[in-house]
Write a structure and sequence with these properties.
about 160 residues, alpha+beta, 2 domains, four-stranded mixed beta sheet, 4 helices, about 25% strand
Length: about 160
């Protein structure tokens, strides 16, 4: 590889992914979300009870829900899903509960049924991937995970 005139290797510079809902600066501590009551303390959001003198704000997850701007999209399709819909949706709800208990900013925003696909919108990238992987582990099928270029989002598709 060519080191160029300055003795450095040429390399591709990756563009930083932008996330409108991620704050560049820390929240003042403690801060409680006025919508969901999550508490920002010790550098992270938790479900601990808020002290009476806590600052008030709307957390990033609740802002995403309010603005209907999902970070993750999980699409579920195929005849197997149509025949096992309730069972798979119960698995999804259980996985959301586990994730949300540990990470309050990772939630399901909504579930939308269309003719041949059910779309689950999430407030975070991690939960969308976790849900897709849970379905795949339980039922196999085909799992496709894509991160759109230049965005901090994810699109997961499962089909069987």
């Amino acid at each position: 590889m060519d080191k160029g005139a300055y003795g450095r290797r040429d390399r591709l510079i990756q563009e930083k992914r932008h996330d409108t809902y991620k704050e560049d600066e820390k929240w003042p501590e403690p801060t409680v979300c006025t919508v969901c009551k999550a508490l920002y303390i010790d550098g992270r959001w938790t479900w601990k009870p808020a002290p009476a003198d806590a600052n008030q704000a709307i957390c990033p997850a609740c802002r995403r829900i309010r603005d209907h701007y999902p970070a993750g999209i999980l699409e579920i399709r195929g005849p197997f899903f149509r025949n096992h819909r309730e069972e798979i949706l119960n698995l999804i709800r259980n996985e959301e509960t586990l994730e949300k208990n540990e990470h309050p900013m990772e939630r399901i925003m909504g579930i939308v049924d269309a003719d041949d696909v059910t779309t689950i919108e999430t407030t975070g990238v991690v939960i969308a991937r976790r849900l897709g992987e849970a379905i795949f582990r339980a039922y196999q099928g085909t799992l496709d995970v894509q991160y759109p270029e230049g965005e901090k989002s994810i699109r997961v598709t499962w089909e069987r």
